Amino acid sequence: MSILNENDYQQALAKAISAIGTVAFVRRLASLVATQVTSDCTLILSYRSGGPAVYLYDNLQHRRDLLFQQYLNGIYAQDPFYQALSRGLSEGVYALRTLVAEQGRGPHYMAEFYQATGWQEELGLVLSLHKGQWLTLFLGRLAAVPFSADEQARLRHLLPILSALCRQHWPATSDLMALSPSVSPSVPPPTSSIDELITPLAPNKMRAHVDRALASFGKARLTPREQQVAALLLQGQNNDAIAQQLGIGVGTVKNHRKHLYSKLHIDSQAALFAHFINHLITND
Questions:
Q1: The pLDDT of residue 281
Q2: 194-282: which CATH architecture?
Q3: Which fold has domain 6-179?
């Protein structure tokens, strides 16, 4: 196996192994892949036969809103990777453009949604977790610099290791979404609260992690009052309850809510949950 930096690879592999069964696993998996290939963007999803795309991880800096507002809300069904998986695509490393050329479809997806993402080149690593369930790790470049044959070969050599790690993290007898603390539904239900989402997990450690994430969520964009309103919304409180707790009018709460939605580039409480859960996953 050709390794760019043996020491970096060994350290990343050790961290991935030690993170099995923890909230950090998917992020460590992405770091392991990054020792083999450089990319601007990484996105990890799970697809289940007949089910929606499940979000696991991303490090997107450009047009990240497209992921939560469009892709996970239905556009994924037009993704050539999703369509190829539905027709029995096997484990491997695939270039998006190759799949598009082979399928002879996807012009709407490529010309409209995909163009808006800014990705110019994309590789997809496909792992079969269990029957009818796949993990897909997407690597994107914002410049038109193709992934070389050597880069693709390194990733193909890495696939058996990635597969073994993922099968340990997600045993065949478990449900991927229920098992992993790093998994969130693509569209969290508007009536859910953060407490409901973390109850099945290790309560003490996860509660502290959630409290830290709530305290830092939106800090760079929101005013202190908007942060307070966002935190209370995430804990399942409605406008009336928030107004009473903060000692302000309901109309004022609605204004704060409108402003924080605008600053975070979201338009619903479901999107607020999705935004926060990603912050929770990536927040150390």
A1: 67
A2: Orthogonal Bundle (1.10)
A3: Beta-Lactamase (3.30.450)
Question: 152 φ, ψ to 5°?
Answer: -65, -35
Instruction: Answer whether 182's CB lies under 8 Å from 57's CB.
Output: yes
Domain boundaries, the chain: 6-179, 194-282
Widest distance between CA atoms in the chain: 63
Give the whole-angstrom CA distance, residue 130 versus residue 171: 9
Q: At residue 189, what are phi and psi to the nearest 5 degrees?
A: -65, 135
Does the model's pTM come out above 0.70? Answer: no
Q: CA 236 to CA 190: how far, in whole Å?
A: 9
DSSP 161-182: HHHHHHHHHS-TTS-HHHH-TT
Evaluate if residue 184 carries a pLDDT over 50: no
Tokens of 77: 């069904």
* Residues 142, 154: Cα–Cα separation, whole Å: 21
What pLDDT does 178 receive?
41
8 Å CB contact between 148 and 95: no
From the CB of residue 274, how many other CB atoms can be counted at a distance below 10 Å? 23
Pair of tokens at residue 137: 């790790």
- Work out the angle between the directed axes of helices 269-282 and 224-234 (0-180°, nearest 10): 100
Within 10 angstroms of residue 22's Cβ, the number of other Cβ atoms is 16
The one-letter amino acid code at 40 reads D
d(CA 175, CA 169): 11
